[in-house]
Write a structure and sequence with these properties.
single chain, alpha/beta, Rossmann fold, six-stranded parallel beta sheet, two-stranded antiparallel ribbon, phosphopantothenoylcysteine decarboxylase activity, Flavin_trans-like
């Protein structure tokens, strides 16, 4: 994996990463590229598990992680054996007009994107087209011919708010695939729907979608 020592930028710690992107057509190479997005939900504690499970099940996967600033509260990104990219990385490699733009390069690189967890804040941003960080810019620039999966995760009462149904419906209308949240006792103590799907479910959906896509291309 192409990962260099972490650097401190603007007070936040990110993986210092210079992307080596492959512009070849997805599905024509053996390696399949998966971009994991994670947001400021406590379910981000499961991101390292998700990464490891995907690596265990398919050694031909190349994985990169795009994180919002708030997601970093919930896991140690230095423990991951894959590149972890944040907002500061968007501009580290851009110096002149002809330099690559990271969120565009990530879109070109990835065969599939899965946002797990997708919190209420980023759900609202994506549904309304906001582009205020690396993750939302990548999603807005996404090639709609490529699969994008999302796994909502939030408090039960936030999930039950009418806007959640409206906004998840909007994402499905874009062609994105929802991995539905589940019912359980949440970290806050509330019991109900809003918990992120089990990691095993997310892994199965990612692999199934990649295999389905490969059989078509």
């Amino acid at each position: 994996m192409n990962q260099s020592p972490i650097s401190e930028v603007g007070g936040d710690i990110y993986t210092e990463y210079v992307p080596e992107m492959d512009d070849s057509v997805p599905g024509t190479r053996q390696t399949r590229n998966v971009l994991i997005g994670c947001t400021g939900s406590v379910a981000s504690v499961k991101v390292p598990i998700l990464v490891q499970e995907l690596m265990n099940i398919d050694d031909q996967l190349e994985i990169k992680v795009v994180t919002t600033e708030n997601a970093l509260h919930f896991f140690d990104h230095t423990s991951l054996q894959v590149p972890v990219l944040g907002d500061a990385d968007e501009w580290q490699g851009w110096k002149t007009m002809k330099d690559p733009v990271l969120h565009i390069e990530l879109r070109r690189w990835a065969d599939l994107m899965v946002i797990a967890p997708l919190d209420a804040n980023t759900l609202a941003k994506i549904a309304n087209g906001l582009c205020d960080n690396l993750l939302t810019c990548t999603v807005r620039a996404w090639d709609l011919q490529r699969p994008l999966l999302f796994a909502p995760a939030m408090n039960t009462h936030m999930w039950n708010h009418p806007l959640s149904a409206k906004q998840t419906s909007e994402l499905r209308n874009f062609g994105y695939k929802e991995i539905p949240c589940i019912k359980k006792t949440l970290a806050c103590g509330d019991t109900g729907y809003g918990a992120m799907a089990e990691v095993s479910t997310i892994v199965s959906q990612v692999i199934e979608t990649l295999n389905s896509k490969s059989s078509i291309t």
